[in-house]
Amino acid sequence: MTAAPTLPAVEGRTDEHTRRARGWQTVVWNDPVNLMSYVVHVFRTYFGYPRERAERLMLAVHHDGHAVVAEGAREQMELHAQAMHDYGLWATVREAPE
């Protein structure tokens, strides 16, 4: 048996495979409406994060203006962002940096 030939790497390639390999992120943004305790509650309830992690993420949202709350496949990150919207939080999906 012979191995299948491999294609040479193409620098700067941004096809779907490359985007999937890098992954996606759900980002929660600071807002003037929700209490910090509520944001912790959402992170613990929806993501199942322990109190310490939920509080650390909430503080990043509060002090830095945003926090990455999940990373993974684009479809899953879109579901997470929609769930955050359903809880009344501001959230977006973005490609994970290289």
How does this model look, in words?
One of its GO terms (biological process) is proteolysis. Belongs to the ClpS family. This is ATP-dependent Clp protease adapter protein ClpS. Binds to the N-terminal domain of the chaperone ClpA. Involved in the modulation of the specificity of the ClpAP-mediated ATP-dependent protein degradation. The protein has 98 residues and is of the alpha+beta class. It has one domain (21-95): Ribosomal protein L7/L12, C-terminal domain/Adaptor protein ClpS (Ribosomal Protein L30, Chain: A, 2-Layer Sandwich), CATH 3.30.1390. The chain is built from 4 helices and 3 strands; from the N terminus they run αβααβαβ. The chain has a 3-stranded antiparallel β-sheet. The longest helix is centred in the middle third of the chain and has 14 residues, at 51-64. It is globular. The termini are far apart.
Overall mean pLDDT stands at: 86
Count of folded domains:
1
Largest sheet: 3 strands, antiparallel
Q: Count of helical segments?
A: 4
Q: What's the CATH topology name?
A: Ribosomal Protein L30, Chain: A
The CATH architecture would be: 2-Layer Sandwich
Number of strands: 3
- What is the ordering of alpha helices and beta strands? HEHHEHE
Global structural class: alpha+beta
* Radius of gyration using CA atoms only: 17 Å
Biggest sheet, spatial arrangement of strands: 2-1-3
Oligomer: single chain
- Strand content is 15-25%
Question: What's the CATH C level?
Answer: Alpha Beta
Which stretches are low in confidence, meaning pLDDT under 50 for 5 or more residues running?
Answer: 1-15
The CATH homologous superfamily is termed Ribosomal protein L7/L12, C-terminal domain/Adaptor protein ClpS
What overall form do the CA principal axes indicate? Answer: globular
Work out the helicity level. 40-55%
